[in-house]
Amino acid sequence: MKRTTICFTLAALFMGSLCSTQAQVLTRGKSYGTHPLTTPVLIDSVNLSKTSFELTSFIKRPYEIEGRRSTSIAASSKGIFAVPQGANPGVASLSVYSFSAVSPTYTKGNLRLYGRGRYAIYADGALLSSNEKAPVSSDTVPAVTAPLTLEATHKELVVKVLRMPKDSVQADFKLVFVPEEKFTPLDSVASMNGTHFIDWKYITHGKRIYSVSVSPSGKYAFVVWADRVPKKGATYVDIRDASGKVLRSTQGLYGARWMPKQDYLILERGNGNKRQLLKIHPVTGEQSVWVDNLPGSSYTISPDEKTIYFYEQGKGPGKNPLAIRRISPDDRQPGWRDRTEIYQYDIASGIYMPLTYGVRSNNIYDISGDGSKLLLGVHGMDWTKTPYGHTTILLYTPATSRVDTLIKDEIEIADVSFIPGTKELLITASPNSFNSAGSTLPEGEWGNGYERELLRFNMETKQVVPLTKDFAPSIADVKGYVAKQKAFYFSADNGSRKSLYRLDITTNKITPLNASEEVVRSFSLSSTGNALWYVGQSLNNADRLYRLEAPGKSRLIWDLSSEKLRDVRFTPAKSFVYRTPDEVSIDGWYYLPPNFDPKKKYPMIVYYYGGTIPLTRELETTYDLAMFASQGYVALSLNPRGCTGYGQAFAADHLNAWGTKTADDIIGAVKAFTEEHGFVDEKKIGCCGASYGGFMTQYLQTKTDIFAAAISHAGISSISSYWAGGYWGIAYSSVASAGSYPWNNPELYTKHSPLFNADKIHTPLLLLHGTSDVNVPPSESTALYNSLKILGRTVELVEFTGEDHHILEPERKDIWMKTMFAWFAKYLQDKPQWWDALYPKTVYEQ
């Protein structure tokens, strides 16, 4: 951002002068009019608080400007805003104005309002300061002074001007921001134009579309969206017709679902000591009790709408609170001893009986269209065989109670569906399932257990036919079957994109649907196949809702993106592909700062995960690249080797690697990007990642010195201790360390662990962790912190009390993100003020 010097003299109406090398006059704003104030009927002289009424109190009463009509205003050449006297000078009036304050970095200073009237200054609805008691007699000093801190964000400033009937002075005013010494001024252009950047406030506030669900006939769509404000947000449901028109918008239908055959909604409701299922017309809201006394907890409605299947948690043997005998490696997990039981409820008769019985957990994978057959999954563990978990698939016929075992103790099954009109099943599984039937890897080579393939399974012959050997994307979500088309629809991780596809079961052909967004976040289709709706987002736009009219042709229903980005400035993302020395393409993308100048040098932040799940091309994410870019960084993201969505061979590089190829890809890509883009300051590059990405951050610092600062959130520092103590440690390691254990491959568990290589870390490293993290225990960060402190290295550990693997509580989440911003500002921008404000030195550090 170009640093401006503004010097002004207050003259004419404002006698005296003020001059500062950084002081900024706010010259553009909005007016919300001048409103007469009336005194209420004074029935009594005081209210319940024994307080007398004062007309001046209006200046401190809430006034919500959002959604109100306004007009743009500009200050005079001397920076003065004229305040009208009101239609009747003998009546008190309140004038309201708003101004935008935008800073892409951390800054603090004072707002100074010069004038002779009665004023109040607000920031984002909070009162900063006021002088409502009496008008100011002199304008040589500020009438109101208020401190203002902007933490790489934007704030809406509101100035209220109160004019009392006996006030004789003119209330015109000038508003000035004066940064403290060593702090940067506001972004003049953005503040003047009323625009802002993608900052943390943008990420946590505003609307998001979460999901869409289409009614059985396709006549209606059920759209879930939220208007988010931390601790104050609300979730809504829109009922739209086939054309996209909103027929109804309500909070009362949240949690409802469509009936299988009818265009009616089912919603669970508490009624005294019992629970009911209400049947609701989506438009009129007319409702009736469908099930009066709802047993169980979660439920599935049979397609014939005659039976409901309920899931209940059966309580296992309790634990002695004084001495616990562990009966399984997973027995440390809360609730592990409990088991899922399934019950069936006949709607006509009200009879409620168990469907399954035993000690093994089980679930319903699918129910045939006529409700006559069920596919049940029974889950077990064998701790002597990796990947430990296995599933048995049963075909159950309720009418006869017949049970047929279709598949016995198979590994890594994700989903199973009937293929109507055939004796076959459509199975989503890993490349390792069914003796590697769907694997494209060399014989004997193990695949990534998180990669998902489609297979056809014949229930009579037990023959398995792989469908996706020549299909690189990893299967994500298979939706219902459309009988008229003889086709399934599904989404898949297509590298950094999530795309839609159609599977024709007569030919086994997979056809892309060419959705209009890079990432399809939710999709749904009617059972007749005449309506498919989806919600998507891309690198350069926020959420949009579509109806697919034909393959490759989408109709935009709700362009939420244009609404959210109307006053937001960012530089559109660009793709970057890095070719490794062994000719593998690494997918990447990047954002440049909004005020980008190609002649300047910029610090860069690199974000990655690396833990087998690909990052996706969305504008709005938690570790948001556009948000980092708005603070003056080049922001680069990568999907290095090991993640799914780029083919089985690419994903298999995750196994028994623990950073080897992944780190090489990240280091090589960063060096290549820097060489190709001369605007990157190669001495000011930072990196960050969470969970496995946190491990990658730590591991990278043991392999290279190209980073000037690094951040690891919930990172794994010791592979062996994570294997032993992480909630999913042993299960995740069955993929990431397939076949390798501390006793048969100690080199993997030590030489790849950052803790065992702590002496190689010289990069300033920030460790972040929730104190209640059961996925990656907090001790993983503590161990590396202790090691680096002993070694005399630059390291900080910030723990978030009561938080698990993700920091979710709004106030803690706010501190968490600002801590990262401040760390990078200190080491990549040479601006330690933010960090020092968040974490001032204690007496022990003087």
UniProtKB/TrEMBL annotation:
It comes from the Bacteria. The lineage of its organism: Bacteria, Pseudomonadati, Bacteroidota, Bacteroidia, Bacteroidales. This is Peptidase, S9A/B/C family, catalytic domain protein. Residues 624-830 form the Peptidase S9 prolyl oligopeptidase catalytic domain. Keywords: Hydrolase, Signal. One of its GO terms (biological process) is proteolysis. The keyword NAD does not apply. InterPro entries: 6-blade_b-propeller_TolB-like, AB_hydrolase_fold, Peptidase_S9_cat. Residues 1-23 form the signal peptide. One of its GO terms (molecular function) is serine-type endopeptidase activity. It comes from Porphyromonas catoniae F0037.
